[in-house]
Amino acid sequence: MDIEVCAYSLESCLNAQQAGARRIELCGGLGEGGTTPSAGLIEVVREAVQIDLYVMIRPRGGDFVYDEYELDTMRRDIDIARRLGADGVVLGVLLPTGQVDVARTRQLVHHAASLGVTFHRAFDLTPDPVQALEDVIATGAERILTSGLKPTAIQGAELLAKLVRQANKRIEIMAGSGVSADSAPALTATGVHALHLTGKAFRPGRQTYFPAGISMAGEIPDERSVLYSDPDRIAAVVRLANHEEKSV
Question: How many CB atoms lie within 10 A of CB 244?
Fold first, then answer.
């Protein structure tokens, strides 16, 4: 069972590797649900970790319908990720109606060439997961990250199992959202190929003075604390997921 960690910092990437994760999804834009990280972050992470590194290719927060300027940005970010040593990228494009934009996503997959491609949780915003699965396969992506169209993967476990059967080894299904040591065994039992988590924890930031009523980004994220991936939480999922795989 592959374990992928969504990480926003070098600290979290190092924790993921230490805990036994197989792959990192490197993101920026925590408050927007994950956007393309800086070139500097990609570079220092690639120098520091040996496990697979997949880079989020998302030019902004919000929806997943992109204009030509944004698609050009995505192509350039793919080039940067490749040049800096990434093993793959994470992306997805939708139509205004919510269906997978097969043509534009396929163009990005082809542009990524030798890099692996994960279609991210834009999949969970599609109206018809059965058709969406076939559409993502048609783009040439190697895996789909999904919570089974529910707020958390454990809530979507029934659909995840159905998607695994429908995929029939044509594409990997990776379960993500709310994955923890508690949910790992049940999610593994669905037959998914990988689990995706942040291993979210918070520690106090180094800054001690904050003027009241001022924030750079509103209420989220909390600027007085730092989100990081907890190696103990990740390691617990690694242990439980792989134990469950051996026992079924």
Answer: 16
Cis peptide before 221 (omega within 30 of 0): yes
Within 10 Å of residue 60's Cβ, how many Cβ atoms?
A: 12
Tell me 193's DSSP state. S
> Domain boundaries in the chain?
2-247
State pTM to two decimals: 0.92
Rounded Cα–Cα distance for residues 114 and 110 (Å): 9
75 neighbors 93 (Cβ within 8 angstroms):
no
- The CATH fold assigned to 2-247 is TIM Barrel (3.20.20)
The answer to whether 45 and 78 have CB atoms below 8 angstroms apart is no
Number of alpha carbons in the 13 Å side-chain half-sphere of residue 45 = 34
Burial class (CB in 10 A: 0-12, 13-18, 19+), 98: middle
Q: What is the mean pLDDT of each run of 10 residues along the chain (248 residues)?
A: 96 97 96 94 98 97 96 98 98 97 98 97 97 98 98 98 98 97 96 96 90 72 79 95 59
- Locus of tokens 């659909």: 159
